[in-house]
Amino acid sequence: MAQRHSLAVPYGVPVLAISFLACVATGLELSVNNHAADFTLSTEPGPPISLSCLVHNSSQAEELLWYRGDGQVGLKDGNKVNISNICISPVNESDNGVTFTCKLARDKSVQVSVVLDVQFPPRLSGEETLHVEEDKDVTLTCNSKSNPQAQTTWYKDDHSLTLQQNHHELYQTSEVFRLSIKKVRKSDNGTYTCVVESPLGNGTRDFHLIVDDKKPVFPMEAVIAAVVVVTITILFGIVARKDKIFKVW
Predict the structure, then answer these.
(1) If you write DSSP's letter for every residue of 26-95 in order, what string do you get?
(2) For residue 228, what pLDDT band results from cuts at 50, 70 and 90?
(3) Ranges for the Ig-like domain (predicted)?
(4) Domains of the chain in sequence order
C-alpha cells in the first residue's frame, strides 16, 4: 500500500516569509500612476502633481504606506486601504531628485518608487563691482542651479575670455561656477560676464573688475629702526639742553 507524504511548514518559519509566499502565490503587487515598477516622473516647478498607489490581485484589505525619502508621510484614515493618494503642491526646485515610495504595510518589500525630475532654467542675474590691488588674487563666483545642468562660458568685455595658463583657473560644480585670476594686472581691468546656458533658458551675471595701484610696502624692520633713531635723537637733544630747560622753568 502506497504511503502518502504531506508537505508541512516547519514550526518557527518567520511570518514575513509566509507573507512573501502568499504574495507570490496570489501575484499581489502595487502600481503608482499605472507603473508597476520604479520610474522617473518629469515635471516643472509650480503645478501640483498627484501620485496614486493601487493594490492589485488582493482578496483582502491591504494597508498602504507612503515615504518621502526615508521619512514616512502622514495619511488620513480613509486614504490607506487598497488605494492611497498623495499630492505634492506646489512642486519646487528642492523636490528635484526626491524619491516617493509606496509600500505594502504588512510586507514592505512590496513597493514602487517614483523619482521626481523637476526641470527648471538657471536663476542668474545682476552685477557686482570688485576692487582688487595689483598682484593680488581675485575670484569671481556665479551661484546657479538648473536642471538639466547648464553649460557656463566666461566673457571679458563682450568677447570670449582667453584663458592664460597659471593666470586663470576655472572651477565648476552643478551649482557653482568660479573664475580665479592669479596676481591680477592692469590689463585685467574690465567687465567679466558669466553666461549660463541650458535647454530651458539662459542666465547672466556681470562682474566689473577694477585693478587698483599696488600700495607701497615699508619693511617693518626699517620702520622700527627709524622710530628708535628718532627717539634717541630727541633724548640726546633734551639732555644736551637740560640746563637751558631748567632755567626756563
Answers:
(1) HT-EEEETTBSS-EEEEE-SBS-EEEEEEEES-SS--BEEEEETTEEPP--GGGSBSEEEEEE-SB-GGG
(2) confident
(3) 14-113, 122-212
(4) 29-118 (2.60.40.10), 121-212 (2.60.40.10)
